[in-house]
Amino acid sequence: MANDTQIKIAELFYSIQGESSYAGYPCFFIRLAECNLRCTYCDTRYAYEEDHPQYSIDQILTEINRYPGALVEVTGGEPLLQQGVYPLMNELLATGRKVLLETNGSISIGAVPDEVVKIVDIKCPESGMHLHMNFENFSFLSGKDEIKFVISSRDDYDWAEQVLSDYALQDLATVTFSPVISELSPANLAGWILEDHLPVRLRLQLHTIIWPGKTRGY
Question: Of 10, 68, 130, 149, which residue has the fewest beta carbons closer than 10 angstroms?
Fold first, then answer.
């Protein structure tokens, strides 16, 4: 049975959704272990550097049921590396919840259920991972989905602006630009967006503002 499917989980936690159009809402997070990328600014290295337990889908649903009405976000690591994520997403949708998926942009989202809100990262050059991006994913997006650029510098910004223009991304989904706070001030990024009249949203990590210094379960 699908609900017996085992999935390696880095952590399960209930928090405030921090960096999408759903930012600010209570949300139950399912962080899957493992990742195929090694971004320079990664803040969840523990998802792939440590050993993690396996959960059945039924066990995950039992945890979620403790938080009625909350959003559910499937994230990582890179959640699409584990095939069990697909029956998991279908089971989550069957509960009537709003389901978000955050994925790193390197793996096809073609098999992700249409009802899932897809938040697709596009890695900029200073992440060290931009050559791994799968731009064919843009063809699977709809207006409810999101594309996220995490930006470390002016060079990253210029690169992201070019991708935005080349693919007319604002016509496909909501586009957000977020600064790597240790590398780029939000004020500078906001100024560039305003100067260039870009059709994007500036996005800060709400959870890092609420709980500065916390590194897990937030």
Answer: 68
Tens of pLDDT, residue by residue over 149-206, are 999 999 999 999 999 999 999 999 999 999 999 999 999 999 999 999 999 999 998 8
Query: For residues 124, 127, 129 and 133, what is the CA-based torsion angle, rounded to 10 degrees?
Result: -30
3-state secondary structure of 148: strand
Rounded CA gap, 72 and 119, in Å? 13
- Spell out the domains of the chain, with CATH numbers in brackets: 2-210 (3.20.20.70)
The pair of three-digit structure tokens given for residue 159, joined into one six-digit string: 């690169």
Which residue has tokens 């195929």? 36
> Taking Cα atoms as reference points, which of 60, 54, 33 lies closest to residue 44?
33
pTM: 0.93
pLDDT tens digits along 135-144: 999 999 999 9
Closest by CA position to 192, among listed 206, 183, 182, 202 = 202
Q: Residue 15 and residue 27: Cα distance in Å, rounded? A: 5
The DSSP H or E segment spanning 92 is: helix 85-94
Helix (H, G, I), strand (E, B) or coil at 196: helix
- Asked if 205 and 11 count as a contact pair (C-beta separation under 8 A), the reply is no
